[in-house]
């Protein structure tokens, strides 16, 4: 059970989920209704496209899947551990994510399909930033697993098992952040088009800087 949830985990989880929700909303509105922060629908579309859509479209969808995986691989290479800890170099990865989103803006405004791939890679990179914290599985770019875990927790509670309130708080923060990001992304895209991605990109840079400052502050306290 999560006995104590540090504030930096709470704030970070909410903001990262909001970033993913924003990117996904822009994807749904601007990438021919293509979700970008999660891949279940994309994988289904690949299967459907193989039967009656052009090979080019199938390749495009497969490239989105591959880009997400490569982004996650990039995080995996630098983090070398699946547990969320303050000592990790998340600032570098968040900075990289922000750069990928900025690159996506330019590519998409120039009508290059590669903009879809860089946005997908950014989401894959973010989703792999942290896998677990005190036994809680953390996924910031899609909510299926979060709702599943909440359902399991409620079912166990009905059987009189202990209920981890701190884990529930973490999950609710992720859900509220993702939904908020969807609302923000929709509003921004209406007025600014693909430039709406400037908002999540900027948040990545602010989050990277905030994490670096906080981590250095905690290091000084130890010594």
TrEMBL record:
Highest rank taxon of the organism: Bacteria
TM stretches of this protein: 12-31, 59-79, 169-191, 197-214
UniProt keyword Glycosyltransferase present: no
Entry annotated with the keyword Protein biosynthesis: no
InterPro entries: DUF1275
Keywords: Membrane, Transmembrane, Transmembrane helix
Protein name, UniProt field: Transmembrane protein
Organism: Paraglaciecola mesophila KMM 241
Classification lineage: Bacteria, Pseudomonadati, Pseudomonadota, Gammaproteobacteria, Alteromonadales
């Amino acid at each position: 059970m999560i006995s104590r949830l540090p504030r930096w985990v709470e704030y970070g989880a909410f903001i990262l989920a909001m970033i993913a929700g924003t990117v996904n909303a822009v994807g749904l509105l601007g990438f021919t209704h293509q979700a970008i922060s999660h891949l279940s629908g994309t994988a289904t579309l690949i299967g459907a496209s193989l039967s009656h859509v052009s090979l080019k479209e199938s390749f495009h969808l497969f490239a989105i899947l591959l880009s997400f995986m490569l982004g996650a691989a990039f995080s995996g290479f630098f983090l070398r551990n699946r547990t969320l800890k303050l000592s990790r170099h998340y600032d570098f990865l968040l900075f990289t994510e922000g750069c990928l989103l900025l690159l996506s803006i330019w590519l998409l405004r120039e009508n290059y399909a590669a903009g879809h791939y860089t946005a997908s890679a950014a989401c894959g990179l973010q989703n792999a930033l942290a896998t677990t914290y005190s036994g809680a599985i953390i996924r910031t770019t899609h909510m299926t697993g979060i709702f599943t875990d909440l359902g399991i927790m409620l079912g166990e509670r009905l059987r009189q098992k202990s209920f981890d309130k701190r884990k529930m708080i973490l999950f609710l923060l992720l859900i509220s952040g993702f939904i908020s990001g969807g609302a923000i992304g929709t509003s921004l895209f209406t007025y600014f088009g693909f430039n709406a991605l400037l908002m999540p990109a900027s948040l990545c840079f602010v989050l990277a800087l905030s994490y670096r400052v906080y981590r250095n502050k905690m290091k000084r306290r130890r010594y």
